[in-house]
Amino acid sequence: QKEVEQDPGPLSVPEGAIVSLNCTYSNSAFQYFMWYRQYSRKGPELLMYTYSSGNKEDGRFTAQVDKSSKYISLFIRDSQPSDSATYLCAMLDTGGFKTIFGAGTRLFVKA
Amino acid sequence: DTEVTQTPKHLVMGMTNKKSLKCEQHMGHRAMYWYKQKAKKPPELMFVYSYEKLSINESVPSRFSPECPNSSLLNLHLHALQPEDSALYLCASSSQGDTEAFFGQGTRLTVV
């Protein structure tokens, strides 16, 4: 079993839809949770960073962490074609340094 | 400014060549990382430097040799690579080991 599970998709939605992206994990030591967006042939761009459980909102993006269920989510409201990219969840344990990535979900937003 | 700068953006090298990848950040971050990413796969950690000292080497072949000349610079020296080493090489930095990492745009390496 992988430490972090993420459905690779692809996920295709119409413009304006609410997108829900999810990851599950098995290591209860994970304390720091990130979402990265990666466009084709570019480096990952940090979207959201959350410590421990709870919600965090930034513009059209909301990140949720449920440590009791070992489940994290990223919601994108009013999705745009420019949101078409691969979304990677990532986690760090308290020891730090080693970021564990999910497989990445490929998202396509159709105009 | 959350910028990590990598050069070159593209590199084609033969299997007998020696080349270097460079990475620079001016955010005062004390942890710097090299990752390798193959197409449609997540980044794989190669090396971690903390306070300019190598702290993690993920059993990377010796044909990859990292170097951290100072707190802002990170190099990856390449020698006698194989075609299967062709990938996107990403540099990242974080303020400390337990904070979020910021990535550069990567060097797309092709070994012929």
- Helical run tally of chain A: 0
What's the N-to-C terminus distance of chain A? 37 Å
- What do the pLDDT scores of chain B average to? 94
Oligomeric state: heterodimer
Percent in helix of chain A: under 10%
What distance lies between the first and last C-alpha atoms of chain B, to the nearest angstrom?
Answer: 36 Å
> What are the segments of chain A in which pLDDT stays under 50 over at least 5 consecutive residues?
none
- Which H/E pattern describes the elements of chain B? EEEEEEEEEEE
The class by helix and strand makeup of chain A works out as mainly beta
Structural class of chain B: mainly beta
Q: Enumerate how many helices of chain B there are, as a single number.
A: 0
Strand content of chain A: over 45%
The shape of chain B, in one word, is globular
Account of the 3D structure:
The complex is a heterodimer of chains A (111) and B (112). Chain A is mostly beta strands and 111 residues long. The termini of chain A are far apart. Chain A is globular. Chain A has strands at 4-5, 11-14, 19-25, 30-38, 45-51, 54-58, 61-66, 71-76, 85-93, 100-101, 105-110. With 112 residues, chain B is mainly beta. Helix content of chain B is 0%, strand content 57%. Chain B is built from no helices and eleven strands. In chain B, strands 2, 4, 5, 6, 9, 10 and 11 form a seven-stranded mixed β-sheet that branches. In chain B, strand 7 and strand 8 (73-79) form a beta hairpin. The model of chain B has no long low-confidence stretch (mean pLDDT 94). At the A-B interface, strand 4 and strand 5 of A face strand 5 and strand 10 of B.
Question: What keyword list fits this structure?
Answer:
heterodimer; A: 111 residues; mainly beta; six-stranded mixed β-sheet; globular; B: 112 residues; seven-stranded mixed β-sheet; four-stranded antiparallel β-sheet
